[in-house]
């Protein structure tokens, strides 16, 4: 269901959507000793419904957690992972932090943004792709790195980045460099971030290449971490 179909009707969800969200929200809230601690995953939950945190999403979180709407908005607008307008089916992040930048990340961003015709946190008219300038993907050994719905695409170039986005827009099968074999949508990724499993967490390698070199050296030399006292 798109956010146009299901989200904002006087800042409320339709009954069938509300029932489904309440069921998931209660499961999430039950994991925490204090309900308000569940705010971050609940924001991901409503983002999985609408593709961004809508006004209806703010109202829902506030009601479920006994918070004011102002408290919820204050949190959702602090973190960049919560979006203020609809993102694309595939949210593409380009790392432009120091190492990725000097390895080509800045050039990738410039060429990709021009190629797609949108800028930071903007979405293509067909709703397929949105772009974001990311400060760090925590994968410097694979620089320059991109992410699509928070899955890694390592060792990118301007040409490979543009081809990746073209393939996404054309509906072709695209496989992340590491992790699951299937690339989820932005809404599906938000649902996983809410703490609701898609069953793919153990699929594919999470680390490879240079990331494992230190571990190999440690094993070869018999090094171990100090034991706790």
UniProtKB/TrEMBL annotation:
Signal peptide: none annotated. Pfam families: 2Fe-2S_thioredx. The keyword Metal-binding applies. InterPro entries: NuoE-like (IPR002023), NuoE_dom (IPR042128), NuoE_N (IPR041921), Thioredoxin-like_sf (IPR036249). CDD domains: TRX_Fd_NuoE (cd03064). The keyword Iron-sulfur applies. Its cofactor is [2Fe-2S] cluster. Keywords: 2Fe-2S, Iron, Iron-sulfur, Metal-binding. Gene3D superfamilies: Glutaredoxin, NADH-quinone oxidoreductase subunit E. Belongs to the complex I 24 kDa subunit family. This is NADH-quinone oxidoreductase subunit E. It comes from Streptosporangium pseudovulgare. The lineage of its organism: Bacteria, Bacillati, Actinomycetota, Actinomycetes, Streptosporangiales.
